[in-house]
Write a structure and sequence with these properties.
Layout: H1 3-11, H2 15-22, H3 26-34, H4 41-54, H5 60-63
Length: 68
């Protein structure tokens, strides 16, 4: 399991819900989750904001190694 999917699963959020939160279509989100290197910084920031609601110690490079 990749980190994006792992954190989303930890949050108890479906792919559809996360797609809505970060502002992309479900099909786009599924592709992004399958290949986290395709996340744009603005989507990664929104994703991280959701994770930080539960665990504020998580940093961008804990999830997205390619964006830092």
């Amino acid at each position: 399991m990749n980190r994006v999917k792992g954190y989303r699963t930890m949050l108890g959020i479906t792919q559809e819900e996360m797609a809505s939160i970060i502002g992309v279509s479900i099909n786009t989100y599924r592709k992004m989750e399958d290949n986290p290197d395709t996340f744009k910084i603005e989507h990664a920031n929104k994703f991280l904001q959701e994770v930080n609601k539960v665990d504020s110690s998580v940093k961008m490079d804990d999830i997205f190694k390619n964006l830092v």
